[in-house]
Amino acid sequence: MNENAIDATAIDPMGISSSATSVAAAYCLQLGDDALIYAQRLGEWISRAPQIEEDMALGNVGLDLLGQARVLLTRAGELDGTGRSEDDLAYLRDEREFHNVHLVEQERSDFGFEMARMLWFSAYQCELYAALATSSDETIAGVAAKAVKEVDYHRDHASQWVLRLGDGTSASHARMQESLERVAPHVAELFEDDSVSVAAAEAGVGTLPSSLWDSAFGHVSRVVAQATLTLPAGSTWHSRGGRNGIHSRPMGYLLAEMQHIARSHPGATW
Amino acid sequence: MSTPALKGNSPERSWPLWEVFVRGKRGLSHVHVGSLHAPDAEMALRNGRDVYTRRQEGVSLWVVRSTDITASSPDERDSFFDPAADKVYRHPTFYDVPEDIEYL
User: Fold this and answer.
1) What is the count of structural domains for chain B?
2) pTM here?
């Protein structure tokens, strides 16, 4: 047992070794999983949004995220030495092998909840990709430079709706406020310094999630205040474990739906 | 007895209609591409972006409330448009264009 092997268990329970390459692989994987799982959730809105125009808007956001996930997962498969393709990683991993945060796997609820979730997630992604544009990994830097414009639009879309629903009727205000409170327990996990992000930041590949908090929180709190809403003071509990593959109940159902075609018909192509 | 949902005088539940104009590139005019629903002008612009510029169709967008457009009526078509039919001298076809002039 050399020192690296011992480090590896600390960094990733899946047993990936701790060289710079595999740190980058694990980092790409968890960023890619966030994008992939949220894309899957947003896809559920097609035909269920308040208007067909909003079907399109949420579908577009989902497709942007799917595009980011494809690049990041492909890169993860290249770097981790297993040679897995983006499809292998998306469709053939089990729940415990996904490293996304709990926020993105939560069930689709009402439109207000989706806008509250998108506001937080896109505020986080805006700061994340802005920081990653200088990543030492060219693929990460590339996807970040392109994605920063995409997520800027997602953040704008969510902000516009939170403003309208919060500062709308008394019914929309109450439901938007309730949505902020339902999302709140899942926010802290996004900004927690997990071991992979810490190692990736040290290697110059990634950035510390905690370093993104001030700007992301600043944006969300400005929108919330302008929308005449109140950010929940603090939650009695916080989700955690997503980065280590520990997920909440909705995740298994999401994967079943996302993966069943690929698993029922192995190797099928269009 | 009608059901409550079908009673008259209920406020219009759906969003107002907007006409969308896209400019394909600098120097071209905005061209009408279609319409959509949106609660207000800002959201109409964003919906227009999502619905009509997904494939890089444009560099600029206009949205106009459909009710703000005054349109000519089909009934007036004859008096509006037919008188132009026999006035060929309004077309610039009576000039000889010198050969070495481009873009004319």
Assistant:
1) 1
2) 0.85
